[in-house]
Amino acid sequence: MSLVSRMREDLQTARRRDPAAPGNLVMVLGYPGLHATWAHRAQHWLWNRRGGRSAARLLSQVTRATTGVEIHPAAVIGRRFFIDHAMGVVIGETAEIGDDVMLYHGVTLGGRSMEAVKRHPTIEDGVTIGAGAKVLGPVVVGAGAQIGANAVVVHDVPAGAIAVGVPAKIRGDAKSHPEPTQDSTVEWELADPALWI
């Protein structure tokens, strides 16, 4: 996929994920989540080239200063990744993120070990992580899972599950309720993780 095609896909993703999305020009100029994602791709490319790691690291700090998003250049991020509102997101070195993942502001994909091993989360395809949530350690968040706002996840989350609270606990079975609602009286359904603030 060409660079231009990938950028178009990112813009389509932003439009699909954000009902307040304006036109492409405004998104290109004013969406820090897109800027951080695009910058990370360049930094990741540099990181995997001989002699490029220092430049990648320095560029990631420039991106952090300008967008409020810190993504380690070594982190692996799939397609159609979107960060809504962007500010305060941290993604660690050994984090792996699948396709169609969405993060809200303030999310941390952090480590719990000082050893140079796989110490950051693996986020599988189609996961949504609510504002302020912390996913810590080499845990696996299964495909289609949802993490509530401000949850602290320190254990694996099964595919399709909903995890909320500190420490996060699994609420209901998302697979048996595929049609989310906005009804806040239904505890186990999570139409929007930000509702759990």
TrEMBL record:
Q: Name one GO cellular component term.
A: cytoplasm
Do you know which Pfam families this protein is assigned to? Answer: Hexapep
Keywords assigned by UniProt, alphabetized: Acyltransferase, Amino-acid biosynthesis, Cysteine biosynthesis, Repeat, Transferase
Gene Ontology molecular function: any one: serine O-acetyltransferase activity
UniProt EC number? 2.3.1.30
Q: Which pathway features in its UniProt record?
A: Amino-acid biosynthesis; L-cysteine biosynthesis; L-cysteine from L-serine: step 1/2
**Reaction(s) catalysed (UniProt annotation):** L-serine + acetyl-CoA = O-acetyl-L-serine + CoA
Q: Which GO terms describe its biological process?
A: cysteine biosynthetic process from serine
Q: Record's NCBIfam families?
A: cysE, EPS_EpsC
* Sequence similarity: Belongs to the transferase hexapeptide repeat family.
Instruction: Report the protein name in the record.
Output: Serine acetyltransferase
- Name its species: Spelaeicoccus albus
Question: Mind giving the lineage of the organism this protein is from?
Answer: Bacteria, Bacillati, Actinomycetota, Actinomycetes, Micrococcales
